[in-house]
Amino acid sequence: MTKRVVTDEELERPLVPYADALTQILSAFSPLPPEIVPLERARDLILAETIVADFDVPGFDNSAMDGYAVRAADTADSPTALKLVDDLPAGSDPQVRIEPGTSATIMTGAPLPPGADAVVPWEDTDRGDGVVTVLRQTTPGKHVRPAGEDLHAGDEVIQAGTELSPVHLGVIASLGRTQVAAHRRPRVAVLSTGDELAIPGEALKPGQVYDANKTLLTAMCERAGADIDATALIGDEPDVIGSWLRQVARHADLIVTTGGASVGEHDWIRAILEAEGTLSLWRIAIKPGKPVAFGRIEGAPVLGLPGNPGSAFVGMHVFVARAIRAMAARPIEPESVRARLAAAVKGSPSRTLFCRVRLEANVAVPLPAQSSVVLSNLIPAHGFAIVPPGGLPEGADVTVEML
């Protein structure tokens, strides 16, 4: 089994302050170039152009009811009999003008024929054949949907930067468009490392635990707006890890690894980045999650997270999710609220603490079992209270980043 030499230099390397690390990492990520995307694949993407209506929607006055197209003036002395001169289903192109004393059968959505200025619904007539009797007076514009009722030519309909919902896509389709310019989802590759890890579903060998991180981080990356490009679970084999990193770097926008970023004899991620790529920073003053590594291999950015699931979750929430949102042109910062701490939090003398809390109104209640190895107590957690070095007393105001 290959071991690496642990040096005094890495053991004594100073921690990078949290704010400095966050700034440095995020400065490496910006929105991916826009692409032309078919509407059927554009849902939830961020629009990269402003959509302007080229024409009125609808483009013509049309009927809002099934009934009869009339001249409103002809109904002033109702009941009145009107001769039927046309039959207009939806999608028709009226050619016959409605003259005084005449009418046309019309269906919902059909264009209003020339000369008509109102629609009388079925129930206000005797539904005659050849001649229809209108039973009640109507007024100009009644039951008529005017041209441009939805959109007018020249309207700025959807602004660039909008996250495209199904309604947005429907509106764009109503303008006759089949595609839009949008920022695609970043392609992210996720790697779990460690000889101690087993694939869920397989039998555990002595000393092994099931790998939760690959499943956890993959789902979190997708939730942040990424497409998963590749995943793998590899033991502590530097040659195999390096080969996999170089391979996925050819097409991934970001590589996320978990495990192998600390100072153990079998921790290889940082060493591989230093030997085969670049290492921009390592060891950040946060708790949990100190041994985060950031660098590049074959030009692709790599965020190496710790192997303990609680620490990996923090690294994903703090760094990876923000990087993904930056590439997808989404708002980078997570939702946050201000709250009061229900109990004092001791914190760390030198590191920013991400304290798991449950919110009760505007009170943040710290949860038990804050260990970096514990994952299950994130289920009841609403967010992380950001506790500065040195801790905070009971009742202190604190920012809670929502999960």
Short description:
The chain is α/β, with parallel strands linked by helices and 403 residues long.
What attributes does this structure have?
single chain, 403 residues, alpha/beta, Molybdenum Cofactor Biosythetic Enzyme, Chain A, Molybdopterin biosynthesis moea protein, domain 2, 4 domains, six-stranded mixed beta sheet, 7 helices, 26 strands, 18% helix, elongated
The CATH architecture designation of the largest domain is 3-Layer(aba) Sandwich
What overall geometry do the principal axes of the alpha carbons give? Answer: elongated
User: Percent range for helical residues?
Assistant: 10-25%
List segments where confidence is low: pLDDT < 50 over at least 5 consecutive residues: none
Please, what is the average pLDDT? 94
**Any idea what the CATH superfamily of the largest domain is called?**
MoaB/Mog-like domain
CATH-defined fold name of the largest domain: Molybdenum Cofactor Biosythetic Enzyme, Chain A
Strand order of the largest sheet: 16-13-17-21-20-18
Beta-strand level of the residues, as a percent range?
Answer: 25-35%
